[in-house]
Automatic annotation (TrEMBL):
Biased segments, Pro residues type: 16-26
Cell membrane keyword on record: yes
UniProt name for this protein: Transport permease protein
Places the protein is found: Cell inner membrane; Cell membrane
Main location: membrane
A Gene Ontology molecular function term of the record: ABC-type transporter activity
UniProt topology in membrane: Multi-pass membrane protein
């Protein structure tokens, strides 16, 4: 009895509890702060912050290519160099067959997607940590910082698509008439990439070791994703699980079928990739909003 009373006194700051009065374990439910996320309100805030997203993306683009002799050419030099290496190693040495499509086009389509994802992932992961001074001074939806990095990666991807068009001319071929399938695939690609960027951006703030994992993830991911080889190289019984964990596999395969082979993407794999990307997007956003309130305290 004495131990129980001593505990009550401590919890109430030294004031003894009246006899027969139960002490609540916490504040009343109506006083507990509950954050509700309303999709329409979230969309409205992001739309209202569109000028900030544009300004952040423009700032990052200027900082990246300022005083660079080759300028925006760097956006395609990396995928072109990797494409040349993949052609020598996987096509010439390992004998990866791509059917009627030239292997160079086959690999470059995958590299455009991977370059977009890896740029967004690496820059998006550091987007909050690199803008802490701005975060603590100006109110804005904090998810705009990873979004701005994805916009920068989109500009790089657009340049890469322009080079892809030139490569079609070099190989005397043209995109297949089924290229319109690229539109839903692009939405899946954006949803998955933004979800990953949201998760990593807030994770880096709380656990700085994550930033050191990013180069490892990038280096391993380009080989774990069917960039240099077709999705068919993964055992058939594991393909659905693989696409569920890495929707980029189905996205890249779908782009190749739509652009190079004149076929519609595999419906089942595309649906699995779409569902998985939606889970990553919604889960990543909820994870981000759950932890964003403590960013200023941790930083």
């Amino acid at each position: 009895m004495g131990g129980q009373r001593a505990q009550v006194i401590d919890e109430r700051g030294g004031r003894p509890a009246p006899p027969g009065v139960a002490i609540p374990a916490g504040p009343p439910p109506e006083l507990v702060f509950k954050r509700r996320l309303r999709p329409l309100q979230v969309a409205h805030e992001l739309w209202a912050a569109r000028e900030l997203v544009r300004a952040l993306a423009e700032r990052d683009l200027r900082a990246r290519y300022k005083q660079a002799v080759l300028g925006f050419a760097w956006a395609v030099l990396t995928p072109l160099a990797l494409c040349a290496i993949f052609t020598l190693v996987f096509h010439r040495a390992v004998k990866i067959e791509t059917g009627a499509a030239p292997y160079t086009l086959f690999a470059y389509v995958g590299l455009i997607v991977w370059q977009f994802f890896s740029n967004t992932m690496n820059q998006g992961a550091l987007s909050l940590a690199n803008n802490l001074s701005l975060l603590n001074k100006v109110y804005c939806p904090r998810e705009v910082f990873p979004l701005a990095t994805m916009l920068v990666a989109t500009v790089d991807m657009a340049i890469g698509i322009g080079v892809l068009g030139l490569m079609f001319l070099v190989f005397w071929t043209a995109p297949a008439a089924t290229f319109l399938w690229a539109v839903p695939l692009l939405l899946i690609q954006f949803a998955f990439t933004y979800g990953i960027a949201l998760i990593l951006s807030v994770a880096v703030v709380y656990l700085r070791d994550v930033r050191h994992l990013l180069p490892i993830i990038t280096q391993m991911g380009v080989f774990a994703t069917p960039v240099a080889y077709p999705l068919a190289k993964i055992p058939h019984r594991l393909q659905e699980i693989y696409v569920g964990l890495n929707p980029l596999g189905a996205v890249i395969e779908g782009y190749r079928k739509a652009l190079l082979y004149g076929e519609a993407p595999d419906g089942r794999m595309t649906l699995i990739a779409a569902a998985s990307s939606l889970v990553f997007l919604v889960g990543g956003y909820l994870f981000f909003k759950k932890l964003e309130t403590g960013i200023a305290d941790v930083a």
